[in-house]
Amino acid sequence: MKKYMKKIKANGWKIGFLAPAMILFIFIVAEPFVRGFIYSFTNWDGVAKNYDFIGFKNYVKFFRDPTVFLPIRNSFLYTVITVICNNVVGLALALALNNKLKGTKIYRTIFFVPFVISFVLAGFLWSYMYTDVIGALFNINSLLGNPKTVIPAIAMISLWRDAGYVMVIYLAGLQSIPQELYESAKVDGANPIQKFFKITIPMLTPAFTINFALFIGWGIKVFDYVMATTGGGPGKSSETLALYVYKYTFNYNKVGYGQTVAIYMMILVFILSGLTAAFFRRREVEM
To answer: What is the pLDDT of residues 62-108, one digit of tens each?
Structure first.
């Protein structure tokens, strides 16, 4: 016992530094998660002091609820568009700015700056752009008002804001690739395309792991862009899973079912992000 007490005293300062973060985590993340998990087994409306435990009825209801399929479809469509577009554009920017020429640092900063803007502010900004700028210039209705274009239009907000972040990750990966590999390939007669696919892409696999896994998770649980631009409209054509959870929890006063959908969404994010990360990690090349 004395031995353990000495260790605690010796490492007390470390615990002191960790304590504030741990307390915040417990009260902001852990406790609400546990409480929400408990509510998913109830019929609580969010207002009443009393509620009944109904077992797995909410979990079974999810698979029989026809209204949930459109939010799932919208979330997947948004995720596919943002994952592909952000990674393609981010990689292209990184390749273009991966040099020591004059002015590249300025361009890197310019492309990264939108990422520091909040989701809500970016949504309001582009809502104005789509309605009063792009619509007026090209004499077309807002893309946010068309059920066929609303999800791609919201995804383009993510492209504008987040591509700079992807670029930074790829830039870090590009700058960690040993130049000797390119010099050896040049001696062997490899052309730029062969260098790109045989050296650059394999060596960037850790960056692919980060960018693909992150954006799949962010895409499935997207809320801010949709809430700030359309609120789920027109109709419910842009309603995502996260917005579906919000409406059932706060608008429809069905906290139990709303938390159930949130649990399923969390499981989906973990599975898809985990499978993606595992897929790329198996293909990582050791330097």
So the answer is: 999 999 999 999 999 999 999 999 999 999 999 999 987 788 889 99
- The residues facing 53 across adjacent strands are 42
Rounded to the nearest 10°, the torsion over CA 194, 200, 165, 147 is 40
Task: Let me know whether 23 and 151 are in one domain.
Answer: no
53: which DSSP letter?
B
Rounded to two decimals, the pTM is 0.91
Is 286 within the bounds of a domain?
no
- Tell me the backbone φ, ψ of residue 42, rounded to 5 degrees: -125, 175
Tens-digit pLDDT profile for residues 187-244: 888 898 999 999 999 999 999 999 999 999 999 999 999 999 999 989 899 999 999 9
Kind and range of the H or E element at 140? none
Claim to verify: residue 92 and residue 185 sit in the same structural domain: yes
CATH of the domain at 172: 1.10.3720.10
Amino acid at 248: Y
Range of the domain at 138: 67-281
